[in-house]
Amino acid sequence: MQAKNHIHLIGICGTAMASLAGMLQLKGHRVTGSDQAAYPPMSNLLRELGIPIAEPFSETNLQPAPDLIIVGNAISRGNVEVEYMLDQRIPFNSLARVIHDEFIVSHENQGHESLVVAGTHGKTTTTSMLAWIYEVAARRQPELSPSFLIGGVAENFGTSFQLRDGRPFVIEGDEYDTAFFDKGPKFMHYFPDALILTHVEFDHADIYSDLAAVKTAFKRLVNLVPRRGRIVAFDGSENVSECVSHAMCNVERYGFASSSTWQLADFHFEDGVSRWRVLHAGKPRVELALPMAGEHNALNATAAAALAAGQGVPPAPIIEALASFRSVRRRLEVRAMIGGITIIDDFAHHPTAIRETLRALRSAYRGRRLWAVLEPRSNTLRRNVFERELVDSLSLADQVVLAGVFHSEKIPEAERLHPENVVSALLKSGRDALLLENANAIVTNLVSRLESGDVVAILSNGGFDGIYEKLPAALERRASQA
């Protein structure tokens, strides 16, 4: 791909696919893409970049034939463009492989330093923090200017990707499979020089059979880190400990334990800022501040700080970067404040993520009534594997509203989550819980019940049928009629 080619992306509106499209355009390629239906936020990004999106999928989108097709991991056999691509023998590849070949080890940059952030939870935020640390550090040391690819829009950058001439390439290492022709995790293509491992839990029930299969994937990632490399791993998880137990490189642990290589101490949240001390090998190292709530975010920040420090980034830019970190869109994002009611958007995809989100909101909005409005949409939440854990997580809210399972018909009955069981268990535990089929029904119900001071956490890893726009609009109408 040294020549300037026409490259077409099937499934271009996925977060990573849209980011890759922008990166390829920056390298001078002519980029096009297609999707079943263009959807934000990445459709907005692509339009801003001037990258055309054809919708829906069609053979005509591949006429004349592009030089290369990149197939998104959500695309399977039977897709009309995939079938035409195979029939016509148009060259194709996966997102992860192209990232490796063209950006991590390309001849043009003589090889970046691959800094990978992986884990079941926290990787998008941690990747954003690490990229921002390097960006701030590069103001004094230009060689540290980072290229990055993140699975979300980092607010400090206003984008999910960047290409620079500096040494580091910071990338979110996704454990989901690569493509229909490569069923291994995407992160197996990134060959980390240094790795952050945040959490290891059972997730992605559509492609992993059990926790053992998930751990096997992460063990294989750990096995790719060279002896000269480093791993920064969370020390509050037996699963993480198992995954790094046979690493051939230096492993540094982070967490609240006194035995942690990088120990968090004296954590507290006040006036919108989390503050804590970090001890390194038992000795005071640095004091950090982060304008975000939640111990989980302090852990993410400590992991990013530890990896950056070990790679030679001085303390000052680390402190400055975290103090000015502006989060990631759809992570505890305030979408609206209307009549004293605060509406929060969070990309919740797993009971653990839901629990940590609600804990953070409890800390940030003390004494206020907390609502959890959940759409079971991820491939794990749509199944009944975590029904009990989901009840426990949602119990942290005062009021709970569940929507129907997204595309429930695509999940076998025996595997499907039954939200009515979750609601019943919550009611028995003393929580006010309600099942409403869709976003319109939820908006109608909430508008009549919400009061000034309420905090509404809308939890979904998708568009939730426009509820993020519909609920504020309905509250605005209510306020104008009062």
Main-sheet strand order equals 8-7-9-6-12-13-14-15-16-17
Which stretches are low in confidence, meaning pLDDT under 50 for 5 or more residues running?
none
Q: Give me the CATH architecture of the largest domain, please.
A: 3-Layer(aba) Sandwich
- Radius of gyration computed on alpha carbons: 22 Å
What is the fold-level CATH name, i.e. the topology of the largest domain?
UDP-N-acetylmuramoyl-L-alanine:D-glutamate ligase
Structural class of the secondary elements? alpha/beta
CATH class of the largest domain: Alpha Beta
Please bin the fraction of helical residues. Answer: 25-40%
What profile does the largest beta sheet have? 10 strands, mixed
CATH level-4 homologous superfamily of the largest domain: Mur-like, catalytic domain
Number of helices: 14
Count of β-strands: 23
Work out the strand percent: 15-25%
CA-CA gap between termini: 62 Å
The rough form would be described as: globular
How many domains? The number is 3
On the 0 to 100 scale, the average pLDDT is 93
